[in-house]
Amino acid sequence: MTVQDHQPLNEPTPSVPGVGLIIIGDEILSGKRQDKHFSTVLQKLNDRGIGLDWVQYLGDDRLRLSHCLRDSFQRGDWVISCGGIGATPDDHTRQAAASALGCELVLHPEAKRLITERCADMAAEGRGSADMSLPENQQRLKMGDFPIGASIIPNPYNKIPGFSIRNHFFVPGFPVMAWPMVDWVLDQRWGALHDRVQHEERSFIVYELPESLATPVMESVERGFPGVKVFSLPSMGSEGERRHIELGIKAHASQIDRAFQALKQGIEALPGFDALQGLHGLQGLHGLQGPHGLQGVNAPPVVEPRR
């Protein structure tokens, strides 16, 4: 199936808009540059109590970008997009956003003023001319061509703004520019989303337990506690550690205690599990050998609370 053949799925729109992050650039997908946006933006969201529902990495492909944005606009998601808002041939984000919305690009008057100021600043530093009729400055003005109805996002680094429209916020790919702009967006435009995430997380470690045995317990907990998420993070073990699984719960504070106990008790009730031995004298993950130094896949599973 080609991008041109893409058709929207007949799936219900989520009742609560999601929060998404789009990271754009061929240089990231090729490995020429390492992405730094995901971890940084995620931390900024977490600091404000905002959960991230999805992230998508895309190359410099206008049609693919347009399809991605069309879908997120239709869902009503809140989205931060990093990269591709310049005016070189490999920058497609502004055009893709306009295409996704079915509108034209127009020169934003405030963006025009800021870009003109930037050109004057550069001229004062002996770099270029403040004459906006020159081809190079006309090219710079294209960075202010935004979809009709867009608002600007201030750029404290060099004044060249980003833009926002319908809860989508577009910033440059350069971290030194993007991250202060993201801070401004989150503090000035995303206030309604602050502290929306009220879920807590609690987990424990189980040694030598196949995920296939843990899965029915996990499914039972999710059935018994609507809205609770149960997760499993397996590890093959390294540096002398035994194979283990981190099992845990993500739930609202009102459910976390009961759901966590249900998960732990369900695991402890599995055949071959010795709760007393499993919970006795365990101090930390690294260097533990399990009860009585037992090794190997036939050793009883051991559960260790995560603090």
Keywords:
about 300 residues; Molybdenum Cofactor Biosythetic Enzyme, Chain A; Alpha-Beta Plaits; 2 domains; 6-stranded mixed beta sheet; 4-stranded antiparallel beta sheet; 10 helices; 12 strands; disordered N terminus; disordered C terminus
What does this protein look like?
- It is built from ten helices and twelve strands.
- It has two domains: 3-9 and 16-193, MoaB/Mog-like domain (Molybdenum Cofactor Biosythetic Enzyme, Chain A); 200-305, Alpha-Beta Plaits.
- 36% of the residues lie in helices and 20% in strands.
- The strands form three sheets. It has a six-stranded mixed sheet with strand order 2-1-3-8-7-6, with helices on both faces. A four-stranded antiparallel sheet has the order 10-11-9-12. Strands 4-5 form a two-stranded antiparallel sheet.
- It has helices at residues 26-29, 37-47, 62-75, 93-101, 109-124, 135-141, 175-188, 211-224, 253-268, 275-279, and strands at 19-24, 54-58, 78-82, 105-107, 145-147, 151-153, 162-165, 168-171, 199-207, 229-235, 244-252, 302-305.
- The longest helix is centred in the middle third of the chain and has 16 residues, at 109-124.
- The chain has 307 residues and is α/β, with parallel strands linked by helices.
- Strand 10 (229-235) and strand 11 (244-252) form a beta hairpin.
- 32% of the residues are buried.
